[in-house]
Amino acid sequence: MASFPLCAVRKLMALFAPLAMLVGIAAPPAQAAYPDKPIRIVVPFSPGGGTDLISRAMGVAMGQDLGQPVVIDNRPGGGTIIGTDNVAKAPPDGYTLVMATFAHAVNPSLQPKLPYQTDKAFAPVMLIGRSPNVLVVRADSPYKSVRDIIKSARAKPGQLSFASQGPGTSAHLAGELFKSLARIDLNHIPYKGAGPAITDLLGGQVDMMFATASAVGNLLESGKLRALGVTTSQRSTSADLAQVPTIAEAGVPEYVAESWYGLFVPAGTPAPVIARLNAAARKAVTADAFRKRVASEGLIVSPGTPEDLARYVLGEQARWSKVVKDAHITLN
User: Fold this and answer.
1) What is the DSSP string of 44-72?
2) Residue-wise over 190-213: b if at least 16 C-beta within 10 A, else e?
3) I want to staple 230 with a disulfide (CB 3.0 to 4.6 A). Which of 86, 132, 252, 276 is the partner?
4) Which domains does the chain possess?
């Protein structure tokens, strides 16, 4: 085989050097592996509540797995609409998520003019878990069971009252579902927050409340309130509520009214990114540290696939849409 003289090789290299430079310039830069910057979870509530606690506990563990900080961004207001809308309009790149709750499934029925289309603006990542509301009465209440309330309400239609932290909240709709399935008439008294509602419950201005486990945990422990039933389909895993029957067990078959927490990203987020977030979230919520930190919430951890969350929320939307319609609930 003939060999090229060294001088000829050098001439060829000099000839093709500019072309090689052009090819290098035209080649697209390699994409950085996801994630390569901090991730933001929008919590559409003020700091300090149950949703904030769960988000922060999960975010720490997710950040360790992903190798990037997970920052909690509290954006309360508008019945979770303000924070949720912020995520709906964010780039679909996996760096902005929303911690969705009960309101995510109910707002389409309560708010006909949402700034986003719930079923089109988001892609599911993972259902984190479900937790109960608790039907509570004050310690000196004459009602010792769910059946006592039903019996009294049927004898005195419209005279018994239940408090909530506001129209359209999980506490309100839990009460409306209770009324419907038990076939009784209760008077709903809305408040601007759980605190004032519980204060009036303790003071005797209202008869009962479907409160979150975290809001009434200390009052149950101190004996100032009594729990009659939990609203989930299963008994609570919380030590404080483990002996409290479900409302279905206690006299209202088929009753289920769960609070829940799930992660969504903007629609159009790449599937591999969603899969990575799902894996990190699953690892975070199944860790012992997470379970211990959220024990006071009575959270039933139930991680699954993005499709599991999508199916769950569709079911919740359909169920609560009927409750809202039948009870003629409006927020205007």
Assistant:
1) SS-TTSHHHHHHHHHHHHHHHHHTS-EEE
2) ebeebeebbebbeeeebbbbbbbb
3) 132
4) 39-131+258-326 (3.40.190.150), 132-230 (3.40.190.10)
Q: How many CB atoms lie within 10 A of CB 28?
A: 5
pTM exceeds 0.70 for this model: yes
For the chain, the average pLDDT equals: 88
- Residue 327 CB-density burial (10 A; 0-12 exposed, 13-18 middle, 19+ buried): middle
Token pair for 140: 């000196």
pLDDT at residue 332, as a whole number: 59
| Residue for token pair 């997970």 | 70
Helix (H, G, I), strand (E, B) or coil at 310: helix
Report CA torsion sign: 186, 243, 255, 319.
Answer: positive
Q: How far apart are CA 207 and CA 217, in angstroms?
A: 18
Q: Is 131 exposed, middle or buried (0-12, 13-18, 19+ CB in 10 A)?
A: buried
User: How much is the pLDDT for 30?
Assistant: 47
Q: What's the average model confidence in pLDDT over 30-38?
A: 82
CA 294 to chain centre: 14
Beta bridge partners of 211: 134
**What does the longest C-alpha to C-alpha distance in the chain come to?**
110
Question: What is the tens place of the pLDDT at every residue in 268-325?
Answer: 999 999 999 999 999 999 999 998 888 777 788 989 999 999 999 999 999 899 888 8
